[in-house]
User: Fold this.
Amino acid sequence: MAKAPDATTRKSPRRSAFDAQAFLESASVSSKVTEFRRTEIIFRQGDPPKHIYYIEEGGVKLSVLSNSGKEAVVSLLGRGEFFGEGCLTGLPCRTATAAAIAPSTVLAIKKEEMIRVLHAEHALSDSFISHMLARNIRLEEDLVDQLFNSSEKRLARTLLLLARYGKQGQPQKLLPRISQGMLAEMIGTTRSRVNFFMNKFKKLGFIHYNGGLHVDDSLLSVVLHD
Assistant:
């Protein structure tokens, strides 16, 4: 007769990775899926914050407008990322404008519903907290990048982030038609400087164009070079 394994040797079953998108799309969550065309506005700076959003496909640009009318791009987000999370903190209005930078599918969840499911589903809470921590770390790194690095290094780092460098299962490809003007706004330089460095990166084989902008891992050498 086979001997049952004791408690010290019995292996616990492996937990599968939590699928935030599948959960948010499930019948247990009240949400709305919306398709946005390229450049279409999702919400505007100053709007009342009623929803939090999750990107299923495509990409979203977050930008702010100063009192003098100057616009600055503060972030480009892609598949699997949340945005509009400021509504959960009680902010009276949106602090940025969100617009699609490619044909995009976005899941909208009302603030009250998101608060409910965050309390009810601990795996979603863990996933959301991890997302927010990663976003905060990236913002801190962006600030350091602006203060200490050259515009060439800032552009290389931005391209790698947009290509989701280092994330498993993600293709090394940017969303199509991200303009050099938008990149210039993100790194705080002129379009002509971006054009100069993009041509340089292309000649060195760090990037290439084929149905969109592809970024090679070798571009990391620009960021690491002193």
The mean pLDDT is 83.
